Amino acid sequence: MNRMKVFLLLAVVIGFSACQSRSKQAAEQEMTDDSLYVSSIEEEKTIIGVVGDASMNNFMLITSKGDTLFISTMDQEPNDVTGFELGDTVRVNYIEEEEEPGSSTIPTAQKVVVIGKKIRNK
């Protein structure tokens, strides 16, 4: 009879710990899902560089270190991301957004401010 009680007690403990593990897994999964959601809302960053090329929805920025970044201006207010020309030095306030979870990030300009105009021959 004592063996039966010990066996039942052991079965109950195993049952509760199995449920607890699933609860932990569910909580960890929720945290992972929340972190994916939060990662798409990044803090605004700033970078300075020279405009190397531009098109309607993006432009190429060359930093002082020689790094080349392609920055998206799609879906932004035109007044916030225009007014610069090739060769101008600009300060870009941007956020990094993922196109798809797990893929590379794309800097999206929030505001572009010209801090130096290229001297142009007339």
> Number of DSSP strands?
5
Provide the CATH architecture of the largest domain.
Answer: Beta Barrel
In CATH's first tier, which class of the largest domain applies? Mainly Beta
pLDDT < 50 runs, ≥5 residues: 30-41
Structural classification: alpha+beta
CATH topology of the largest domain: OB fold (Dihydrolipoamide Acetyltransferase, E2P)
* Rg calc: 27 Å
Number of helices: 1
Protein name: DUF3221 domain-containing protein
Signal peptide: 1-26
Keywords: Signal
Organism: Bacteroides acidifaciens
Please tell me about this protein's structure.
The chain is of the alpha+beta class and 122 residues long. It has two domains: 1-39; 45-116, Nucleic acid-binding proteins (OB fold (Dihydrolipoamide Acetyltransferase, E2P)), CATH 2.40.50.140. It contains one helix and five strands, in the order αβββββ. The longest helix has 38 residues, at 2-39. The N and C termini lie far apart (104 Å).
